[in-house]
Amino acid sequence: MTTSRQQTIENLNTSYDQLEQLMARLSPSDWDVQSLCPDWTVRGVVTHLASVEHALDGWLPTEDDNAPPFDRVGPWTSQADAMSTEELVAATTEIFASRRELLATTTDEQFATASMTPVGPGTYHRFMDVRVFDFWVHERDITTPLGWDTSDGGPVAERSLDEVDMSMGYIVGKKIGLPDGMGIAFEVTGPITRSIYAKVDGRAARVEALDDPDVTVTADAVAFVQLACGRVDPQQMIDAGRISWTGDATWGEKAARNLAFTM
Questions:
Q1: What is the full per-residue pLDDT of the chain (263 aa) written as tens digits?
Q2: DSSP secondary-structure letter at 80?
Q3: Is the pTM of this model over 0.90?
């Protein structure tokens, strides 16, 4: 589940493009709509994404200093809160343009440099892949309550699903609590498709194949990731038929209701 430096940069550029296109569509009242994040309106989500990119702009980790300058987030957020909507859009677009320029000049060595990331110690490359995931999820934090369709296929969506896929051992073992000896399959359906398997053998772990899973959970890709991020009500997804299960009914339902591993 690794990407090349160039693919990660392309994914980030796509993420910037999509948010810029989304901002252009927002009416004055849309900015005040409650997002899927309890603490943020649509404007708050945009401000959050821009503030983190502002903090990262001009920064690359070094061997001596690999802590991202997140102390820049708060002051910029305060500035953004005082901006008009037009000013916020312009500032966000300017930040993205500067980030594009920085990323275009990076090397494989810089991407491989150790860095703290939102998911723990890693590399700058890992950090940027997490940013792709954040953008994908936050875009839908905006579009879902607005009732807007999104383009949910392609490399950015695949990368976002990777983040859930890589956490499957934790989800199955700690969140779902599948018992020892049992195996589970997750069938992710369009617009991106993937079969994800996990088995509990002393501890839960993702496995490459599972001949006879005790339970199979099926969900569309957006519902699957949003459930894993704790963004949507499992009951609503069950009632809408966007997540279902076969096999062991008790553990199928428990899996559908307990996918959330991050917020």
A1: 789 999 999 999 999 999 999 999 999 999 999 999 999 999 999 999 999 999 999 999 998 888 999 999 999 999 999 999 999 999 999 999 999 999 999 999 999 999 999 999 999 999 999 999 999 999 999 999 999 999 899 999 999 999 999 999 999 999 999 999 999 999 999 899 999 999 999 999 999 999 999 999 999 999 999 999 999 999 999 999 999 999 999 999 999 999 999 86
A2: H
A3: yes
The CA distance from 202 to 185, in Å, is: 18
Helix (H, G, I), strand (E, B) or coil at 113: coil
User: Cα separations (Å) of 37 from 21, 46, 79, 99, 137?
Assistant: 21, 12, 21, 25, 10
Does an H or E element contain 205, and which?
strand 203-207
Q: Which two tokens stand for residue 210?
A: 């599972």
Region class of 153: left (phi > 0), else alpha (psi between -120 and 50), else beta: beta
Cβ atoms of 195 and 161 within 8 Å: the answer is no
Residues 217/244, Cβ–Cβ less than 8 Å: yes
Query: What tokens does 59 get?
Result: 């920064």
The separation between CA 185 and the C-alpha centre of its own chain, rounded to angstroms, equals: 21
Please name the amino acid found at residue 128: M
Which residues, in sequence order, are CB contacts of 225 under 8 Å at separation 6+? 136, 137, 160, 161, 164
Query: 72 Cβ partners below 8 Å, 6+ apart?
Result: 51, 54, 55
Phi, psi of 221 (to 5 degrees): -60, -45
